[in-house]
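Section 5.1 Outputs to date
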Amino acid sequence: MQDTTNSTSTVETSSKPALKLNYKRTFTIGFAFFGILLLWQVYDSWCPTFLTELFKSAFNKESDQDVQYLVGVMMALDNLAALILLPIFGRLSDKTKSPIGKRMPYILVGTFVCAVCFPFIPVFFHQNNLVGTIAMMAIVLIFAMMYRNPAVALMPDMTPKPLRSKANGIINIMGYIGGAFATVVGMIFVLSTYLGTKAGSQDSWQYHNIWTIEIPFLVGSVLMLISALVLFFTIKENKIAEEVKDDMARGEEESEAADKMAVDDEGPMTKANKIMLYFILAAEFFWFMADNGIGTFLNNYVIYNIQGSSASTAVMVIVSGVGSVIGFATGGIIASKIGRKWTILSGLGATVISYAAWIILTFTVGFHGSVPAWLYVIWFVKGVGMSLVHVNSYPMVVELCSSKKIGAFTGYYYAASMAAQTATPILLGLLLLVPAFNWDILPIYATICLAASTAIFFFVKNVKSNKTEFKKGLEALDVDD
């Protein structure tokens, strides 16, 4: 007798109304990520160089490489705090009930404290105050962790599982707009110009124009507050949760978990889902080892190794951002065709190839006191490749849990990334102390980490959802108010 179970299921599935992504709401939720990347772009671009100059002054060091291990330790301690705090705030927000929702209280408090403290980082640097600079960096990071996890969890809270890669693409585009804005502001107020015009005592910058380094932080704070207020006045968590309840339940039926029947509210994870989660998080750890290792030291690499300016670093970040927008816009579409696993592997492969080209061209062509055109091309390819990774990896993790555990699983995702971001600055800083190594080790290090990530991700199971028909074209742009 012919088995009609699958055909019956297909008929039932196709008879349901098409799932559609609420673009208006998704773009609005993206304002949370706009504030997050805006903060981190300014933080990562400027703080490592602040610390480099302060440590050189404090320990009377001439070479920038002599203090990079200290810079790495300080950046790692920040991330170690995040490693602890992200899962905590994720679980707390999962269990929170308030008139404004379970995520919004953390978003508002965290954003407000960050916005107030963020501009004091360059103030303390300007006064050559190492302790004050580090203290402000720590406060900003702690409260950024308070709002980061809940802000990211908003998207899967309100988006059915099959639509999350596309939604995550939109969220990330909004974030990169924030990062690009911060980069452009940083280009106008160039850090290397500030450092290059020191006068008077070598150990003090207090006689220089502080606005050169202060304005990017002030602009970041103002825009963070605006983004949080937009989110608060437009996203009514409790109301939306009730409106999307049926679509969320349907999304559970069409998930891409290894063992989708075992994804429930209270039950433990099955062995198949645990294995899938562990492989994803392990691979994520190594790609963040590469990505954050380069991101932490990029400005120093350009200033101290290439003899370029921080404006050149800003252009590289913008070029990478353009590539990232392309990847974020197409990553969900590609995943719907070939699956999230192979989309992520394609992105990792493209990035590995681009970094390998970086290594080869460094030793064959070299630099001549400025960032060469070929490095911008590499940064563009890297932007496309890693955006394909990021746009699909987070949805894969929250695919493995129910709606009541999204904050906790978001915490697992960011715990893996923060563990990498804790280890990689220290490791790279220590490598730069080795006499045989110099700044040229940066792309070599990143390539090795990405190769390990790629090898691990091959073991992730490629699960394609039991798709229903999705709205396409103009019909997909229909938005519910």
